Amino acid sequence: MKKTLIALAVLGAAAGVAHAQSNVTIYGVVDTGYIKETGRDIRMGENINNRIGFRGSEDLGGGLKATFELEKRFDLFDGSAGNTNTAGYKASWGGANSGVDWDGAANVGLAGEWGRVRFGRVNELTTETIRKFDPFYQYGVGSMLLSSQRSARINNTARYDSPKWSGFSFGLSYSLGQNTKRGGAAYGVNWDNDGYAVNLSYDNGPVMLTGNWSRVADSDNSSVWNLGAAYKFGPARVSLLYERTRDKGFKLGTANTATNNIFGAHDGRQNTWLLGLEWDIGPGQLDASAQYARVRPDSVQRSSLYKYALGYTYNLSKRTSAYAQVAYTKFDDKGVGAALTGIPGRESMTGFQVGMTHKF
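The structure assignment produced for this chain is given below.
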């Protein structure tokens, strides 16, 4: 009996040590509401993407940690995988549910005083950093006009993030191309390029700055670069961003057919400017933005887009909030309007959205 008690005590102590060295956090977001847009029936949809995730680390000693993250995203209103029903989540040129089981992060890595490195499926640097300068964080009907090469997360990637030095930090990523379209005869080019990205950021006091360049894998060397700046004073923050996209008509190894409807020459350009405002008012935050985008589908044709958005998030608690947004978009070209909205002949779009969010 005494030996049994001693054995149990030893096992308990060992378990306590193991628990002290490693930890796992379960986190998530549940969000749903109603969305009404011009030319569409009212529907249920989310603002912040619904998700459940597992994040953990293990102390390896000497200041080194092993890390992992697994995140699954879903539509709360019907339980389906992905995030298919929110305008802000969709790629600007007609993107849809990715069909990936772990649509969020799915990676393992190492972290220490030197920074952090992750391998697997990770957030794309340029998307993760520039969205901080959109008051709507690229969510909901108020989201910034998204690039046709936007990839919220990328696969087969090694990503490094540096520590901060007096507010400065940088990130690098490298993604393997999957040779899915090598030597395609349709356009006589190789579309299986590897992907690269670099970020340089500054975040210290009231000032926040970022600069990014990325080339998405398997996109026929399509690329995006952007710049963002923000200044916070009192309860308010103003932001300004610029993004330039070169789209050759392919994304992630697949012909971007919605893009091809506009970029017939497969070398289209998109330039986007955004001026944003965030203002803490009462127990919540007012968000507003004014945007302008110029699309060049080919060497001759050019088209302009204008978007204005206003929203308010009311914090019911630290974890629960209610929100309302309204946005108006004007298209100079009906073809561009149709590609962006999925509705033929569309010259403008007005969207309304209300709902609530709980984070855990």
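Interim note for the steering committee: The longest helix spans residues 2-21. Helices lie at 2-21, 125-130, 257-260, 334-341.
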